[in-house]
Amino acid sequence: MNHLLFSALVFISVFGCALLGMYARTRLPGHHVDEDSATAIKLAAGLIATLAALVLGLLISSAKTTFDTVCQDFQHNAVNVLKLDRTLASYGPETSSLRASLKHKYGTWVDLIGSDDATNRHAIDSPAVLGHINDFQHELDALHPANEDQRQLLPRAQEIFEEVFAVRWSALLQKHGSIPMALLVVLAAWLCVIFGTFGLFAPNNGTVLFFFFLCALSSAGAIFVITELDTPLGGMIRVPVAPMRAALGQLGH
C-alpha cells in the first residue's frame, strides 16, 4: 500500500475515534463517565499509551537504522567501484573496454536508484540489470594475465567485484522494508483507542478539536516517516545518490 495513503487512513481513523469519543460522551448515561469510571478507563488507556509509545519509538529507531545501513552500503559500494576501476587501470590498456563497461553499467544503476519514476526504481533488481552484472563478471574472468603483476591484480579485481555484488544484494534485500504491516496496523489500532479515550473525557470545543487534529496528524506523520525510512529505495525519502554520482564522475580517468 502507498505510504501516504496508509498514513492518511491512520489520520482519519485516529481523528475519527477522537470525534466518536466526544460524541459518545453526550450519549452515555452519566454514571458511565463519572469520576470512578474515568479513573478506570484512563488507567487502561494509559497502559495502551505506554505500549504505543514504546513500539513507536522502537519502530522509528529500527527504520532509521535500516535507512542509515543502506546509505552506508551504497557509499561503501561506490568506493569499491572506484577501487575496481583503479585496479583495472593498473592491470593494463587491455581493460579499457572493461572499464568503459563498468562506468556504463554503474551509471545505469545510479540512474535507476535516483529516478523519480517508480517504474524505473522497481527495475533495479530486474533480470536485465542483473544480466549486465553477470556479463561484466564473465568479461572480467575472461582476462588472461600476461605477467606477474597482472596475475596478482586479477584476483584482486575479482575480489573487489564480488564485494560490490554482495553489497548491492544486501541493499536490495531492504527494498520492501523489514517492518511487518500487521505491526503498523496494530499500532494504529492502539492510537485509535487512545484518542477515543481522550475524546470521551474532553470538553467539546474548538480548541480541543484543533489540538486533537494536530496530534492525530502528528501520529500519522510518525507512521509515514517509519514506512518511508524502512523502504529507502522507494517513496519520498530515498537514499542520496550524490556520493554515487561523484564516484561515477571519477570512473575511467
Describe the protein's architecture and organization.
The protein is mainly α. It has one domain (3-24, 35-250). The chain has helices at residues 3-27, 35-91, 96-114, 118-122, 127-141, 148-172, 181-200, 206-230, 242-250. Helix 2 packs parallel to helix 8 and helix 3 runs antiparallel to helix 5 (127-141). The protein is rod-shaped, with a radius of gyration of 27 Å. The chain starts with a helix and ends with a helix. The model has no long low-confidence stretch (mean pLDDT 85).
List the helices and strands and how they pair.
Blueprint (H helix, E strand, L loop, with lengths): L2 H25 L7 H57 L4 H19 L3 H5 L4 H15 L6 H25 L8 H20 L5 H25 L11 H9 L3
What are the salient characteristics of this protein?
253 residues; mainly alpha
